[in-house]
């Protein structure tokens, strides 16, 4: 019997990508809402209740509204918005972090898919804290670069306009008030005592991102080098098919450059540890539309269905 799936918000970037990924699957029956009724609460409620799994690809307020409409607790809700990522009763959709995270997703009815920047940051910081390498009161700072596809329809249209302003041709740092919406989950999921400093940059390419965290070696709880951290990450994420760790002779790392779009179109995430014995930079490179959004959402669904985590995804 096919799993009935409804995508609430199928016209957005994440919703469209989830739709595309289902095209070749014979185990999914997609439920389609009448286009002119896609914002009608009663029709959305009807579609949610007709489904086994509903994906929410909506702004936060609309996602909360959809959850309120889902009175049937047997329907699995996989929310890609920011609305429920730090809320009690919701499993955080990053199964590689620990066995407990994986079990919570597999057994859960309410799953919150991580934010794209948060995915990169947490993939780096969570293992360091779990292993006692980074103390929870470490003053963590991070910078990141991303393609414009994660910024929504209006921003995508602006970047792809033929008469766009010249500043869109350069990387633009933003969240200068240190109020980025992913900071809350970045702190809570890792367990950091203080909110990290975070400086994201949006640049003139469609998809892909790099998130980096800078570390002073003498402030770590254990003596580490780039080489030892590479090995630590490799051991931590051993047999995790969605996460790869660069080898010491990795060609990309050896080049001295990490391109934001280097893994665009791939649904995994790759970790690098570079620097020297005094200052270390750990980085995650991935597609903000893959492991950072729709790919992660489908991975969670696959876990719930008990099939291969990578089914329908590009690894």
Task: Supply database-style keywords.
10 helices, alpha/beta, 13 strands, six-stranded parallel β-sheet, globular, 315 residues
Helix and strand pattern: EHEHEHEEHEHEHEHEEHEHEEH
What is the gyration radius calculated from CA atoms? 19 Å
Mean pLDDT: 95
Low-confidence stretches: none
Number of strands: 13
Cross-sheet strand order for the largest sheet: 8-9-7-10-13-12-11
The helix content, as a percent range, equals: 25-40%
Largest sheet: number of strands, sense, barrel closure: 7 strands, mixed
**Structural class, please?**
alpha/beta
Number of helices: 10
How far apart the termini lie comes to 27 Å
Which geometry do the CA atoms define?
A: globular
Content of β-strand: 15-25%
Question: Can you walk me through this structure?
Answer:
This protein has helices at residues 13-21, 41-50, 60-69, 99-107, 116-130, 153-159, 183-190, 226-236, 251-255, 290-305, and strands at 3-8, 28-31, 53-56, 76-79, 91-92, 110-112, 141-146, 172-173, 197-202, 209-216, 243-245, 269-275, 279-286. The protein is globular, with a radius of gyration of 19 Å. The protein has 315 residues and is an alpha/beta fold. The strands form two sheets. A seven-stranded mixed sheet has the order 8-9-7-10-13-12-11. A six-stranded parallel sheet has the order 2-1-3-4-6-5, sandwiched between helices. The model has no long low-confidence stretch (mean pLDDT 95).
């Amino acid at each position: 019997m096919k799993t009935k799936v409804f995508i609430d918000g199928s016209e957005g970037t994440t919703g469209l990508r989830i739709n595309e990924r289902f095209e070749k699957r014979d185990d999914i029956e997609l439920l389609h809402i009448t286009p002119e009724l896609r914002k009608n609460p009663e029709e959305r409620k009807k579609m949610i209740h007709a489904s086994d799994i509903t994906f929410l690809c909506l702004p936060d307020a609309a996602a909360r509204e959809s959850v309120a409409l889902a009175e049937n607790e047997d329907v699995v809700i996989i929310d890609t918005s920011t609305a429920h990522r730090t809320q009690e009763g919701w499993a955080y959709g990053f199964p590689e972090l620990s066995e407990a995270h994986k079990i919570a997703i597999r057994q859960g009815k309410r799953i919150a898919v991580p934010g794209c920047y948060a995915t990169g940051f947490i993939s780096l910081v969570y293992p360091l804290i779990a292993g006692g390498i980074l103390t929870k009161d470490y003053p963590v700072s991070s910078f990141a670069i991303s393609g414009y596809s994660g910024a929504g329809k209006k921003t995508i249209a602006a970047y792809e306009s033929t008469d766009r302003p010249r500043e869109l041709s350069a990387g633009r740092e933003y969240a200068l008030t240190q109020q980025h919406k992913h900071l809350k989950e970045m702190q809570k999921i890792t367990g950091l005592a203080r909110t990290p400093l975070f400086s994201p940059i949006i640049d003139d390419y469609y998809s892909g991102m790099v998130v980096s965290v800078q570390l002073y070696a003498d402030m770590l709880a254990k003596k580490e080098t780039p080489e030892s951290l590479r090995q630590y990450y490799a051991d931590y994420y051993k047999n995790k098919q969605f996460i790869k760790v660069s080898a010491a002779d990795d060609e990309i790392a050896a080049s001295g450059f990490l391109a934001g779009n280097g893994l665009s179109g791939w649904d995994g995430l790759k970790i690098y540890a570079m620097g020297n014995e005094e200052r270390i930079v750990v980085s995650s490179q991935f597609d903000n539309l893959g492991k950072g959004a729709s790919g992660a959402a489908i991975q969670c669904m696959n876990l719930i269905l008990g099939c291969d985590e990578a089914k329908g995804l590009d690894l």
